[in-house]
Amino acid sequence: MRRAGPLTLRGSAIPETTTDQRLLDRRGPTDWVHTDPWRVLRIQSEFVEGFGLLSEVGHAVSVFGSARAARGSERYLLAEEVGGRLATDGYTVITGGGPGMMEAANKGAREAGGTSIGLGIELPFEQSVNDYVDIGVTFRYFFVRKTMFVKYSQAFVVLPGGFGTLDELFEAITLVQTGKVTRFPVILVGTEFWGGLHDWIVKTLRTEGMISEGDPDLVQLTDDPAEVVRIVHEAHVNHFG
Ligand SMILES: C/C(=C\CNc1ncnc2c1ncn2[C@@H]1O[C@H](COP(=O)(O)O)[C@@H](O)[C@H]1O)CO
After folding, report:
1. What CATH number belongs to 3-240?
2. What percent of the chain lies above the pLDDT cut of 90?
């Protein structure tokens, strides 16, 4: 008689090898590691790692912005101040873990004594999370990483940026617009940078009936890092009491 996990096998039903033996013997074709069912398992493991790492993080805010801002530039310093003020107010700061404004926001959070998180993404070129990330994870799949930003933040702060930042901004407001997520603040920092986009949203998207009357109000604009924290805080108090 052989027990194999929950199974009981007797007589000719008993295989010549054990389950462990079959697992440990390295043989057979390997092309299955490039198949979709295998990828599904890897995707699952990214969710498990992400949830495991982030589920005990306290109230957090995601900060997005250009990967290209130079250290010490005005925009880098703005991101650093935003990260610092959020951390001082008790919020964990989550960024994409990359260079530029992501690094600056992580730096601000770390130096203010807060928790600094970076959710990195595997890219075609070598890159690790920036040096100011205290808790970091690097994802293979963009959509898994995006779930983490949304699931674990109370607000999105969007600094000036390019396609990556725009993608994050529009994903957030689409989720709020379609009721796929409980409403949370989406704050655009930099009235000169974002003003043109906001005007286009109002004058073209709304006027042409592509969005609802109130949809432009899904985002708020400011230049002031203190105002960012005030907006986050106010939404937090309204939501959690
Ligand atoms: C382009 C360079 C590095 C890219 N490295 C990135 N690492 C992590 N996250 C990134 C990176 N690039 C984009 N992101 C995400 O998009 C936003 C910034 O993109 P943008 O196009 O620069 O606006 C950012 O919030 C990230 O989440 C070379 O230095």
Report:
1. 3.40.50.450
2. 79
